[in-house]
Every structure is written in C-alpha cells, then in structure tokens.
Amino acid sequence: MLSKRIIPCLDVREGKTTKGIKFQGNIDIGDPVDMARFYCEQGADEIVFYDITASSDKRNIMIDVVNRVAENIFIPFSVGGGIRTVSDMRDVLLAGAEKISVNSAAVKSPEIITQGAKAFGSQCIVLGMDVKKVAPTKTIPSGYEIVINGGRTYMGIDALWWAREGENLGAGEICLNSIDADGTKEGYEIKLTAMISKAVNIPVIASGGAGKPEHLVEVLKKGRADAALIASMIHYGTYTIPGIKKELATQDIKIRETW
C-alpha cells in the first residue's frame, strides 16, 4: 500500500500567500517561499502552489516565485494558475516544479492535457477540479458542477464525467477541490471525494475543508483519497504537520514518518 500524502496548499496572489473562505474574502498571510521552506522542514510530502488570479486576470504564471521555491525546498511541488500552453508547462518545469496543475485552461481546451502528457509524461500533469454542489439535472447528473476562473464561471460540466475524461486524456492525478468546503475548516466533501476516487484509476488529492486531523482521517479512509491538501489548519498554527501525521499513524493510516 502506498503511503498517504500530506500536502500543504499555498494560494498565491500578487506574490503573497493568501487565504479565503469559499474562494472569497482573501487576506494575505505570508511569503510563499518562507512558508514552503518551513513546511518542507516540518515534513510535508509535497507542496502545491496556486496563482489564484492568473486565469481570471489573463496573465502568465509566477515564474519568479517558482524559481525561488525550487532553490529553497527539496520535496516535490506542483504549480497551477495561468498555465495555458505546453510552453507554459515547460517554463514551470524548467523553473524547478515537478508537476503542473491545469484547471481552467483544461476545461476550455482539453487537448492541453494530452499535449502535456505526451511532452512530459502523465506523472507531471495534474487535473485541478474546482467543484460546486448543485441540484442534479440531465446535464449534471452527479449533482456536482465544474466551476472555473477561481470559482467565478459555472461551466455546465458534470464533475464525475470530467474526472473520467481527464484521466482518458492523460492526466496522471486529480486535485479535487470542493468550493463549498473551501476554507470552512468543517471537513472535506466526503461524498464527492469518494465518488471521484471510485470512478478513476489515478490518484485523487482531496482539497477544501480541513480543520482538524480527524477530517484527514475521514477523507483518506471513507473518501478513499490518496492524499489530502491542508491550508488553514497549519497556516494559522493550530496544528503542525508532525502532529497531524502522528494522529494519522494512530488511526492505522500509512504515512511517511518525518519525526
């Protein structure tokens, strides 16, 4: 059995780490490079960076931040936001990232997933999915809809269908974020996570809602997630990565020990 991964998520806006609730009310909370280095030293398995306004602002990714992060940490990290072409992917990888996350661009131009997988390997391509719970319809039978541009634009695409399609197109991993749970610290969207995890054969990272270690236990077990993104619970010092990992170990969850 593969170890479950604990992955700090750093949302970046104008060069600063920021945090909001349900994609709104963001406030700046620190320097992404300093925070990445700290979490690396604490024992994070990977780190995820999202330039949260790159797509909506129609600008390129934060290559300067990627370069500085690569110089300061020694664990894998992925980068998303503002990546629209294979050339953008190449720039991010050459700057030091191990993976690229495509979200809005993949919905608008799904071929970018296949192009990226062919150029760099599926293991480098993460399909980011921002999902909102809605009333089930013929178009959205699962009751979960894909939303892009930082939670601004509803696409009329069923999340379950898109997860399967993303895998078929060549994505090597899915990062599944519940907009409804994002930043609430009330727990992950277990039903959504379990549904997607059962439907695909690639790893699924659960995102949105972590507030205490018990939430990670639930999503890694009941939600069948392969990894869990965490943000607020560590950004504000409520919990530490070693403390979270120790709690998971007591619940018979296989993790990479770092203490």
Kindly describe this structure.
The chain is of the alpha/beta class. It has one domain: Alpha-Beta Barrel (TIM Barrel). Helices cover 35% and strands 27% of the residues. The chain has eleven helices and twelve strands. Strands 1-4-5-6-7-10-11-12 form an eight-stranded parallel beta barrel, surrounded by six helices. Helix 9 packs across helix 11.
Write down the overall geometry. Answer: globular
Element pattern in H and E: EEEHEHHEHEHHEEEHEHEHEHH
Mean pLDDT: 90
Detail the poorly predicted runs: none
CATH fold-level name: TIM Barrel
The CA-CA distance between the termini, in Å, is: 21 Å
Full CATH superfamily name: Aldolase class I
**Structural class estimated from helices and strands:** alpha/beta
Q: Could you list some keywords that capture this structure?
A:
259 residues, alpha/beta, TIM Barrel, 8-stranded parallel beta barrel, 11 helices, 27% strand, globular
